[in-house]
Write a structure and sequence with these properties.
Structural class: alpha/beta
Number of helices: 8
Strand content: 15-25%
Radius of gyration: 16 Å
Amino acid sequence: MTTIFLARHGESDWNVEQRFQGHTDRPLTARGREQAHALADLVAGEEIDAIYTSPLTRARETAEIIAARAGLEPVALPELREVDTGSWSGLSRADVEARFPAGFARWRSGGSGWEDGESYEEMAERVIGALRRIAEEHPGGRVLLISHGGPIRAIHAAADGLDINEYRRLRPVEPNARLSSVAVENGRLTRLD
């Protein structure tokens, strides 16, 4: 069994402004860096074999702060990026609701709202595939994965045996810098927290 610790990146400037980020590369805020240091304190008591991160700045910066404390070098994997929100990237919820009312209604009800970019199912497939490969590379290990709200939801959904859209209807997005964990054994995911 491989233990995978999951953490969403620290707060970014667009988190504060409630803008859709998707693949847009946004930095951490001062509070986001504080959250990353708090995560480093939390993880310091754990034996971690490796750290993997989304290459997007907000996740990479979070991973680098934790990795410096753990004495590890984070490995960036594009598969761990947030869902691509296409034409919604950079827009606030109010902007999206005004410009794309039907899509916004679909998104609020748990489906994909944007008509370009990437679906939640496509994102979940790439993230779960990467997670399984990471587990295969670290059999019996303990790994930290720094990613985004969408990918962590996809992992939690898979561990709970739910479809990503169903999970989105049931659970809010992970808070910034929250730690959770799953186990991967023979490719099967189960929730540990």
